[in-house]
Description:
Elements: H1 2-8, H2 28-39, H3 42-49, H4 53-67, E1 72-75, E2 78-81, H5 83-102, E3 116-121, H6 125-140, E4 145-149, H7 156-161, E5 167-170, E6 179-194, H8 206-211, E7 214-217, H9 226-230, E8 239-243, H10 246-255, E9 260-263, H11 264-274, E10 276-279, E11 287-295, H12 302-313
Parallel strand pairs: 3-4, 3-5, 7-8
Antiparallel strand pairs: 1-2, 5-11, 6-9, 6-10, 6-11
Helix pairs in contact: 1-4, 2-3, 2-4, 2-5, 3-4
Amino acid sequence: MFEHNLVTDCQVTKKEGSDVHLRSVDLNLLTVFDAVMQMHNVTRAAQLLGMSQPAVSNALARLKVMFDDELFVRYGRGIQPTAKARQLFGPIRQALQLVQNELPGTGFEAKNSERVFKLSICSPLDIRLIAPIIQRVNQLAPNVQLIVRSNLNENIEHQLRYQETEFVIGYTKFERSDFHHISLSSDELVLAVSKNHPRIDNSITEEQLLSESHAIVSLDKVGSFSQLYYESAISTKSIAYESTDMNSVLNIVSQTSFVAIAPRWLVQTYSEALNLKLISLPWEDTCRPCYLTWHESTDRDKGHQWMKELLSQLSIPS
């Protein structure tokens, strides 16, 4: 019945010079828009909605008329939203969530949910957090699926705003008012060097630190603590090696005379296996807070609230 009404009833007509009133709009179309925005694929959106693919395609055609925009264009094997679609997504999703949360008997039942959550966790916090997060979710919600990425780049704010990812765990605080965050804990940063380093024994001065060759996680990685030092205290000219993750950085440091700034817990974890030693940094401020961040458009989503509570309880030990 739902699919039949969606395809044939309440057709949106738009005459030149006339206004489109809300009563002339089939609001069921907005659920289709929301599903297609999440899936970036008409077939998967149809499966999510329990509709046929032609019915979803028909609904998209009507949405294009309603908003006077293509909304979605072909991209590889899927589709990609236009700028207009991205602009609409946040307000429409918030409105749908508000209505959904007020319906009798609705809610998020973790034990029975088959929801997909998308998380972004920067390196090296992914090493420490992904396993316990997955274990906790499997325990409480065995049918929930997690998609976790550690590749945070300059598009991460955009991805949060349009729910291409739902949470970010990293060292960067998002300052815009539409992003919310909580502090999980702080990491103490130290200097990692090879135990066979030719110049560094058990301590290092600031002058010597600045003169050494550094291995870092790429400065393109948003949420990385590397940005906090190599864009201020340490010249980028001292960077000899850039990698996408801290595992590679520490492996290179163990085999060369390069040095690397890293969390104390990470260096301690690999010190014996990689023949590393940790040296205290010659600065007073060596702690970096770790933040859990999300976009305000998800605040009314009960599933999102459940996941936020789960993640906030997995505080990172100091």
